[in-house]
């Protein structure tokens, strides 16, 4: 049975943000050829319009930069889904464009805001202004979509006070979903070459403030970096966090099918030539599957059910893991029960360190 979640990567951007390590292309010369390559990859992998899927996520890059006729052509070639998300940037959001997305069957819009500080936006080479964010949120608040805003915690030029103020200003528009990610300085990015002192302690404090404010505002903490109003959790992202299988099409896209995890090439020329896969898919071994489930499930509000690991580890290994978990519980980092392991909310920023104690 094929995965019920499909991700499609649109790599085009007007420029590359200084923190970005994704597969992006900063010109639009190859849009038509790229859409044809996407359709060819889908056909080669047996992903057809008649396939039954539950979620479709068009991400990037900047999908809202794709020519409307090409986006329509692409969407018409893909399977229909109950939840269809398209990522947008504020500067492309207009009433006519949102109406266009609605006619395509889009149900959910995710907008990259990052910060409301114009100085920080400029420093990070973002192409929108805070004014454009407010204009876009006004339109989204009046639209039929479930919508999300993405923020980044710890950007140069922002402070805890400024980001907390940003949060309250965004909440005034009542988005259905909000994501807040810690800034990650990736090798090869412009940010990695900039003089910048990370303040992890301040970012953690801000994260905890976000968690408190969003909880008090009626949002459920679905996953470490994601909050949603009841009924508005992103089902596509839950696929990743629950360790379920998914398909990915496009430049640099990842797939997890038949317990095989792989990524497509990040080279546009190779992709357009039909050389889609960067590496030969290799089935995950039992211990690797257990570690994958530990990594993903512990990010969620419901945590990890011990029973989910039993197909992949022995009862003795499970007992050893439960012993390690009890030690973390005594430190106030996790909660363990007979059936589950759950990270405590205050420990969410320490997820990576906690995993080092848990993984096999």
What's the layout of helices and strands?
Blueprint: E1 5-10, H1 31-44, E2 55-60, H2 68-77, E3 83-88, H3 95-103, E4 108-114, H4 118-123, H5 130-141, E5 146-153, H6 160-171, E6 177-182, H7 200-216, E7 220-223, E8 226-228, H8 235-241, E9 247-249, E10 254-257, E11 260-263, H9 268-272, E12 282-283, H10 286-297, E13 304-305, H11 315-330, E14 334-336, E15 340-343, H12 351-358
Parallel strand pairs: 1-2, 1-9, 2-3, 3-4, 4-5, 5-6
Antiparallel strand pairs: 6-8, 7-8, 10-11, 11-12, 13-15, 14-15
Q: Largest sheet, if any?
A: 9 strands, mixed
Mean pLDDT: 94
CATH superfamily of the largest domain: tm_1862 like domain
CATH class of the largest domain: Alpha Beta
The structural domain count equals 2
Termini Cα gap: 29 Å
Radius of gyration: 21 Å
Description:
The protein has 360 residues and is of the alpha/beta class. It folds into two domains: 5-241, tm_1862 like domain (pyruvate-formate lyase- activating enzyme); 285-359, Arc Repressor Mutant, subunit A. It has helices at 31-44, 68-77, 95-103, 118-123, 130-141, 160-171, 200-216, 235-241, 268-272, 286-297, 315-330, 351-358, and strands at residues 5-10, 55-60, 83-88, 108-114, 146-153, 177-182, 220-223, 226-228, 247-249, 254-257, 260-263, 282-283, 304-305, 334-336, 340-343. Strands 7-8-6-5-4-3-2-1-9 form a nine-stranded mixed beta sheet, sandwiched between helices. Strands 10-11-12 form a three-stranded antiparallel beta sheet, with no helix packed on it. Helix 3 (95-103) links the parallel strand 3 (83-88) and strand 4. It is globular and about 55 Å long. The relative contact order is 0.12.
């Amino acid at each position: 049975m094929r995965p019920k979640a499909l991700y499609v990567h649109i790599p085009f951007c007007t420029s590359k943000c200084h923190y970005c390590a994704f597969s992006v292309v900063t010109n639009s010369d190859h849009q038509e050829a790229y859409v044809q390559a996407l359709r060819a990859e889908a056909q080669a992998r047996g992903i057809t319009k008649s396939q039954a899927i539950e979620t479709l996520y068009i991400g990037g890059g900047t999908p809202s930069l794709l020519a409307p006729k090409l986006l329509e052509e692409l969407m018409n070639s893909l399977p229909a889904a109950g939840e269809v998300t398209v990522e947008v940037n504020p500067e492309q959001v207009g009433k006519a464009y949102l109406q266009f997305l609605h006619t395509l069957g889009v149900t959910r819009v995710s907008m990259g805001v990052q910060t409301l500080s114009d100085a920080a936006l400029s420093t990070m080479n973002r192409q929108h202004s805070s004014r454009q964010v407010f204009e876009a949120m006004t339109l989204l608040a009046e639209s039929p979509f479930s919508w999300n805003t993405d923020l980044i915690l710890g950007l140069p030029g922002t402070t805890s006070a400024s980001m907390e103020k940003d949060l309250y200003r965004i909440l005034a528009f009542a988005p259905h979903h909000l994501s807040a990610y810690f800034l990650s300085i990736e090798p090869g990015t412009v940010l990695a070459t900039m003089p910048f002192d990370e303040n992890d302690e301040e970012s953690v404090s801000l994260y905890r403030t976000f968690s408190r404010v969003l909880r008090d505002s009626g949002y459920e903490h679905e996953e470490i970096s994601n909050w949603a109003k009841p009924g508005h959790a992103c089902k596509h992202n839950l696929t990743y966090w629950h360790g379920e299988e998914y398909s990915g099409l496009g430049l640099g896209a990842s797939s997890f099918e038949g317990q095989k995890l792989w990524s497509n090439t990040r080279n546009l020329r190779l992709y357009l030539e039909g050389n889609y896969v960067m590496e030969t898919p290799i089935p995950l071994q039992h211990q690797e599957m257990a570690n994958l489930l530990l990594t993903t499930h512990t990010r969620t509000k419901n945590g990890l059910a011990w029973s989910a690991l039993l197909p992949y580890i022995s009862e003795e290994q499970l007992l050893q893991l439960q012993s390690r978990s009890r030690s973390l519980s005594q430190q106030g980092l996790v909660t363990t029960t007979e059936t589950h392991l759950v990270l405590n909310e205050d420990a969410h920023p320490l997820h990576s360190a906690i995993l080092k104690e848990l993984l096999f």
